[in-house]
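Hey everyone, long-time lurker, first post.

I ran two proteins through the pipeline my lab uses and got sequence/structure pairs for each. Pasting them in order. The first:
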Amino acid sequence: MSRMGDGDTVAGLRMAVGTFTVWPVRVDRVDRAVAGRAMSWAPVLGALLGAVIGTVAGFGTWLGWSAPLAALLAVGAGALLTRGLHLDGLADLADGLGSGRPAAEALEVMRRSDIGPFGVLTLLVTVGAQALALAQLAEVSVWAAVVGATTAGAVGRAAATLACLRRVPSARPDGLGAFVAGTVGAPMAVVISTGVLALCALGVVHSPGFALACAAGAAAGVVVAGGLLWHAVRRLGGITGDVLGALVETAATTALLVAAALA
């Protein structure tokens, strides 16, 4: 049984890396047990990607770029490292919900490859807010940018992981949402929440107040993403891959905005 669990964990990590990053990884086994492990690994990958984004922003300011320029390039680098997966989901959900159509038709809108006006506007505001909030943190200190972005990355993926708790249904019988819905248990949710708070504590290196700012941002990110999840489930009947991507971007953006405001 232990070997089976270890195998699930390793396979889940491989699936998470292959799904949520541009890194090419061969996945030999894919089932719901592995999918649950993959969603559990997502916050860890989010923290690592966030650390890269924060480091790029801090390094850019060290090179002499303005903080907004360095932060914008850092956010762009983050999108490249994830193939824009979560941003695409955010835009699709915005178009689906913004259409005002019944669930089945809204889901069909979300399936399309094109992006409508709601999606474009949502992407502009989200990327702009992320870049400006990260720039504000970079102006405080390089460490503030790194810890703030790391926390935001972890919180964003944690929001998606928590959306896969067993009481949350899938909106479709197929797709990523159906594959991962209900695969995360309550004990793992507790572990993930504790890990995110531990990341916030790294802000103490800058100041105790900044650690609290990161914690407040993390809490706000989960609450706002939870509200979006509730609305998506009410309108669509459950989660989809696009809903998960939208939760990632919503929680991460909120965490950055709150941390920047309190820093």
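...and the second, right after it:
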Amino acid sequence: MTIVPEIVASLTNVNYKQYLCQKLENYSWNDLQKAIESDTSFTLEKENKTKLAISWWVTPKRTRSYPFARVYDTLGFSGKRVTIIPVIKDEGFDGDRDFIQYDTFSLMSLLGIHVIISYYEDAEKNTDYRNKITNQRFDLSHVRENLTEVCSSNNNPSVWNAIQLKKIHEIGKAALDRYDRISKNTDTLLHSKKSAIKKLQKMSEQFMSHSRELAQNAQTRESLTIQPKENLEGQKAKLTIKDHQGGKYYWTCDEVTICDGEIYLIEGKHSSKSLPAEDDIKDGLLKLMLYSNLEQIQHDGKNFKKIPVLKLTSVNKNLNTHNLDIIKKLKAEAKNNNLKIKLNDKFLDLN
């Protein structure tokens, strides 16, 4: 039986400067639909020049569609930042069904992001499967209503997100009603509504504990699994982070190395090309934002000094001009945030 190391740490706040944020396209308030269809992250401007930086998640599960990369791109914006997350994503009986989790709210609050929980109201049949849907679209009237509230609200992200949490059951029911309609309109069998209602009820009553039970189970599975986008030498570890707002994050550190009172927390990204995809890199950097701000790192009852590392490996070692530009920005980000970058088998000189 594989014994996976367990690390615990605390987190008070996140201080971090990003260098890889893409330039956000600006859209007028009435062009929200165009913005969502065109970009994963963007700015939206009201008539009074109020601007929001917005990202949106395809599914509430963080391990699909790179939602962390989308959020990352909004973090360089100095005004209010928002992320739109579907409370439920049902792909049909032949696909997956995911529900939003409690600690997503805690993480977004730490990063200064206002969460809007919404739902899909329309979709098309996936012609490759008997019971699967695709091209799901948000209820934009619901999203706009919430965006307007964010603009006028004086609540900080933590307070705003706590209020959103209380709406999960209500918004979840609205989502299931829309999925009923989508199922009929597309002649597609979806997952059991009865089981979803039970889950929503449990989420409403015991959202924190239920989400964390699922997260812990996922952490254990992930800690024993090697992903195709990982090229690792060391051992995986369970990393449990507690924040000052009561949030708990059950993450898996891709690789850990312990040496002379230091613990290297390594997030690995691998590619068959010359460098991992930019979204993959940003996904890793968002996790390293937390790692770089960890306090009281403990393993086996002993305290350690943290060394956060982004490890990039590739089959093709030749870097093109675009790759070199990313490396240059990565080095600046690492230097200013006390990270290390390991490219294939060498640590980069950050000076």
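Reply from user beta_strand_b:
Welcome! Quick read of the second one: The first strand starts at residue 6 and ends at 11. Residues 193-223 form the longest helix (31 residues).
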